[in-house]
């Protein structure tokens, strides 16, 4: 076994042990996460009224089992594990995933869906998530562990890394959160200042050798618009400063996301317009950057658009309105 491979394996074991300890210690603490993004500024209501807003939008092939903090989304043979820090991890199990609680054995591995939690076991490694958006991801490149308070432990060839839900971090980690002050003028990365709004999240603690950043639309844009607010310009400038050195010579994926309110077609268009706006601003801030821009519309949520009884869920929808940046490390 190579030294790098051995280091990764040992780091994964350490991360798993840390996850067990942290989850056990924190499961009764509650949701000690940064302030949620503003619930104002959803996409234009189209053919569907608020009462018609469903977790699947108009896509009958997609089933969402999500809370405000995370869960999982099923579409055909693919399942996306959704964590409270915004991470989404998708696997194709190789055959149609049935509705409801199930244990599905495939040629690739075993999928267990039970009580709002999901576990995928493959080659002895388990990927899990529960209704609090807590759990672990493991693949060939490493492992991440997300605890109930939103803190993240990452193990890969770079060693063991940690980022707290308030942006505090340990050696080798460069993750954190973006906040704006009350006036929307000052942007802070990492520590939570007073009277602020969560504007975005940044973490390199992703398996698959990727980094990602979420920028929340309610801070970035005017209501039902792709026009950047003054705070939005400041947030994009701060994001550009943070990633400028890391993305040189790489392709950055810029993806617009919306909630499920309004028509599917309108949300697809709004996501595209907003992603294009952020991409144009990034090009000014990071000259020469290679960007690929697209819209996911309402199809990749990270929180529930509706409550369990089918009513509108403004807090969940606010988390789904975002623009994500991803690139290979």
From TrEMBL:
Record organism: Barrientosiimonas humi
Domain OmpA-like, residue spans: 208-329
Residue segments, region Disordered: 28-64, 293-329
Segment forming the signal sequence: 1-19
Record has Membrane as a keyword: yes
Cellular localisation: Cell outer membrane
A cellular component term, taken from the record's GO annotations: cell outer membrane
Descriptive protein name: OmpA family protein
């Amino acid at each position: 076994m190579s030294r790098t491979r051995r280091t990764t394996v040992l780091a994964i074991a350490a991360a798993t042990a840390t996850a067990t300890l942290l989850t056990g210690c924190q499961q009764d603490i509650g949701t000690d996460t940064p302030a949620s993004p503003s619930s104002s500024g959803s996409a234009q209501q189209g053919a569907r009224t608020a009462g018609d807003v469903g977790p699947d939008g108009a896509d009958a092939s997609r089933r969402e089992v999500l809370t405000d903090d995370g869960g999982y989304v099923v579409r055909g043979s693919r399942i996306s594990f959704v964590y409270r820090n915004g991470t989404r991890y998708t696997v194709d199990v190789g055959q149609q995933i049935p509705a409801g609680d199930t244990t599905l054995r495939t040629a690739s591995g075993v999928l267990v869906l039970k009580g709002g939690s999901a576990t995928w076991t493959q080659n002895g490694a388990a990927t899990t998530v529960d209704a609090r958006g807590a759990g672990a991801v493991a693949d060939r490149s490493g492992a991440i562990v997300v605890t109930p308070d939103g803190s993240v432990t990452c193990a890969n060839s770079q060693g063991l890394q940690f980022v707290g839900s308030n942006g505090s971090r340990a050696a080798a980690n460069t993750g954190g959160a973006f906040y704006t002050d009350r006036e929307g003028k000052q942007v802070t990365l990492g520590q939570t200042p007073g009277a602020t709004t969560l504007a975005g999240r940044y973490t390199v603690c992703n398996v698959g050798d990727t980094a990602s950043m979420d920028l929340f639309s309610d801070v970035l844009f005017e209501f039902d618009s792709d026009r950047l607010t003054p705070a939005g310009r400041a947030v994009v400038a701060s994001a550009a400063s943070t990633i400028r050195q890391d993305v040189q010579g790489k392709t950055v994926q810029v993806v617009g996301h919306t909630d499920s309110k309004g028509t599917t077609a309108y949300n697809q268009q709004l996501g595209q317009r907003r992603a294009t706006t952020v991409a144009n601003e990034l090009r000014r801030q990071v000259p020469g950057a290679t960007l690929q821009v697209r819209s996911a519309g309402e199809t990749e949520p990270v929180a529930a658009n509706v409550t369990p009884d089918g009513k509108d869920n403004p807090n969940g929808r606010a988390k789904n309105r975002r623009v994500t940046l991803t690139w290979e490390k």
